[in-house]
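Support reply, case 0932

Customer input (verbatim):
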Amino acid sequence: MRAFLLRRLVQAVVVLLGVSIVAFILLHLLPGGPARAELGLRATPGQIRAFDLRYGLLKPLPVQYLDWLNQLIHGNLGFSYKQNQTVDALLANNIPRTLLLVGVATLLALIIAIPMGLYQAVRRNKPEDYALTGMSFLFYSMPSFFLGIILIILFSDVLPWLPSTGPTAQTPLWNQIPNLLLPMITLTLVTLALFSRYMRSSVIESLIQDYIRTATAKGLSRREILTRHVLRNALLPVVTLIGLSLPGILSGALIVESLFNYPGMGLLFWNAAITDDFPVMLGTTIVVGVAVVVGSLLADVLYAVLDPRVRIT
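Our regenerated output:
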């Protein structure tokens, strides 16, 4: 178990270093260099040279990378001249709202998808299985922005039950529950389709294993077989999928936040892309990269907890 976790931790560190190298290269590939990207097209050569001297951009690239990496480790992601704030301060204000949106949507998707996939596998090739499969394919193939627009038309226009915009940044989120519902429902439905399909396939594969026939021959009830033997083994691919699907969930959150004007990290990145605020875009990219690596590492840990065979590999 320790060797397995140690290997995964080393791999995560290597991947994070790779992400930092790619981000550093992108920083120096900006049009006109980092100074021009920060100061704008109207910056004078004197201002650019002063900027380069201040931030050590005249040093050799390996030295610049080590200095930049040291700044990252200490939480300094740069400064946004367009918003006159540090990037880490901007992200600190917006990340909690994105975590709430992504976390609740993923949790709701799992709560619905696990019993849904289990039910579909048990009722395989029955009318209810076909109906739920069709619904899953519909949501899985539907772009999140299109699904969000449909929900806005349905629940904000035709049936004026919910507001069409997300919560505002000035008011606490717990006082704006109705504004949270449509963004969360949109992201939940898109994520639900992915998890339910994998859960169904995993349960079907588990049901044909020898240990299931042995449990049946011993006289265990259908409920005991499903809850004690099938469910735990069927959850293994889903646990792995949670870590691997994190980039897709975060990209979906970016679109959902932009659509509903939800004040999170996705909307921050969207506005930065529109205004060419490169430090914010690179800082967001680094944070998302770290989140994906950490999510994959947590998925490996959960996999080891659920599958004892991993402990001896």
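We compared this against your earlier run and they match. Two observations from our side: Residues 87-122 form the longest helix (36 residues). The chain has two domains: 2-87, 90-312. Please reopen the case if you see a mismatch on your end.
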